[in-house]
């Protein structure tokens, strides 16, 4: 019988999410990869237990995580039932809808029809009464933003979600949605964009907007799916995402990227960090980032990543060295 570590809240730092009442762990865990039907449930269970033992209270899902779509939510529901009965109120659980989930015209994008039925399905799969955050997963160019936002607000009023989030919205569309949600009296809690050393679009207006609006930010793929670690320096390990999964291909790890990774790894070593740790520390250097949203294929990666909470911040000299490597052609 699993007993969570008594000292779990001493292992983690928590930060207020925008202007809300919610505190988020600086490192949160996402179940996009490694939690589907194809992945052994025992390993999934070990990862979630390790995360919770180290103070990770926030778990991020989406309707389509798997494969097959829906299976990550089902597996997570099973793990909650097996190991976390009695701990629901210590957890912040999110899910999303916005990408293709089922066949036909109602299983994708941002209509009221899709969002409301999708959250009902997610709650059944996870065996939950409510999720803490329900996100619109990506903007829908063809549905009026008012309809999408009203569907999110409706779910909050119904008590099926406590807060609303937006993901992958560019600054202009995010501003419009944030305004509508404010008018609806269900303010946007959080935005979930991709942000890492290789993908910095959020620096071009989004983080400014979120700060102005008092909305938190949780940055996904902070390790560029593992490329910002030392694992691909000497080759492509057979058990890595680049081999196992089509979202990251071997061809994505170009010579140019590997060269940068090697340079970054040297700086990390000088700091006494792994490159993965330094890449996370780098994302969190920006005070407007509430949380990094990591993935993991094994419990040891959670240990490695959570250790950043007690590691030194990056100095100006180190940041300059990193900047130089990133901008070198
Ligand atoms: N909103 C969206 O559109 C969206 C899109 C993508 C992701 N997300 C969310 O963000 C979460 C994280 O995304 P991600 O999995 O791409 O994040 P990531 O943290 O950039 O990549 C995770 C992968 O990096 C490797 N890794 C992790 N820690 C490591 C360490 N300490 N040392 C070496 N390698 C390490 C593992 O790869 P191996 O498997 O190779 O071991 C792991 O599976 C997702 O689960 C999901 O919740 C959201």
Task: Note down, in words, how this protein is organized.
With 329 residues, the protein is of the alpha/beta class. It has a single domain, classed as NADP-dependent oxidoreductase domain (TIM Barrel). 38% of the residues lie in helices and 14% in strands. The chain is built from eleven helices and ten strands. The chain has helices at 41-53, 71-83, 112-126, 145-157, 171-183, 206-213, 241-244, 255-271, 275-284, 299-306, 316-327; strands at 14-16, 23-25, 27-30, 58-60, 92-97, 131-136, 161-167, 188-192, 216-220, 291-294. The strands form two sheets. The chain has an eight-stranded parallel beta barrel, surrounded by five helices. A two-stranded antiparallel ribbon has the order 1-2. β3 (27-30), α1 (41-53) and β4 (58-60) form a beta-alpha-beta unit. α1 packs parallel to α10 (299-306) and α2 packs parallel to α3 (112-126). The longest helix is centred in the C-terminal third of the chain and has 17 residues, at 255-271. The N and C termini lie far apart (53 Å). It binds NADP nicotinamide-adenine-dinucleotide phosphate (NAP). NADP nicotinamide-adenine-dinucleotide phosphate (NAP) is lined by residues 30-34, 60, 137, 167-168, 192, 220-226, 229, 231, 240-241, 276, 293-297, 301, 304-305.
Write the layout of secondary structure elements.
Layout: E1 14-16, E2 23-25, E3 27-30, H1 41-53, E4 58-60, H2 71-83, E5 92-97, H3 112-126, E6 131-136, H4 145-157, E7 161-167, H5 171-183, E8 188-192, H6 206-213, E9 216-220, H7 241-244, H8 255-271, H9 275-284, E10 291-294, H10 299-306, H11 316-327
Parallel strand pairs: 3-4, 3-10, 4-5, 5-6, 6-7, 7-8, 8-9, 9-10
Antiparallel strand pairs: 1-2
Helix pairs in contact: 1-2, 1-10, 2-3, 3-4, 4-5, 8-11
């Amino acid at each position: 019988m699993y007993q969570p570590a008594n000292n779990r809240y001493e292992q983690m730092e928590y930060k207020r999410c925008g202007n809300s009442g919610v505190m988020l762990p600086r490192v949160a865990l996402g179940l996009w990869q490694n939690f589907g039907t194809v992945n052994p449930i025992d390993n999934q269970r070990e990862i979630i237990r390790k995360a919770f033992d180290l103070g990770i209270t926030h778990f991020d899902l989406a309707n389509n995580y798997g494969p097959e779509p829906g299976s990550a939510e089902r597996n997570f529901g099973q793990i909650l039932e097996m190991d976390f009965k009695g701990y629901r109120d210590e957890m912040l659980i999110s899910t999303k809808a916005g990408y293709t989930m089922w066949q036909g015209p109602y299983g994708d994008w941002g209509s009221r029809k899709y969002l409301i039925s999708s959250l009902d399905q997610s709650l059944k799969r996870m065996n939950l009464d409510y999720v803490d955050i329900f996100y619109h997963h990506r903007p829908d160019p063809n549905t009026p933003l008012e309809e999408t936002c009203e569907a999110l607000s409706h779910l909050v009023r119904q008590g099926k979600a406590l807060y609303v989030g937006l993901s992958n919205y560019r600054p202009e569309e995010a501003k419009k949605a944030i305004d509508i949600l404010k008018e609806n009296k269900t303010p946007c809690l959080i935005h979930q964009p991709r942000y890492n050393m290789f993908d910095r679009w959020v620096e071009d207006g989004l983080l400014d907007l979120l700060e102005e609006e008092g909305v938190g930010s949780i940055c996904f793929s902070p390790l560029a799916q593992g490329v910002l670690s030392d694992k691909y320096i000497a080759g492509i390990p057979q058990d890595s995402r680049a081999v196992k999964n089509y979202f990251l291909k071997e061809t994505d790890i170009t010579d140019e990227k590997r060269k940068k990774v090697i340079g970054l790894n040297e700086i990390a070593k000088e700091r006494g960090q792994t490159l993965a740790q330094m890449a996370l520390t780098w994302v969190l250097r920006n005070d407007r980032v509430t949380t990094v949203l990591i993935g993991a294929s094994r419990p040891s990666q959670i240990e490695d990543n959570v250790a950043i909470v007690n590691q030194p911040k990056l100095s100006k000299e180190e940041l300059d060295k990193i900047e130089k490597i990133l901008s070198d052609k």
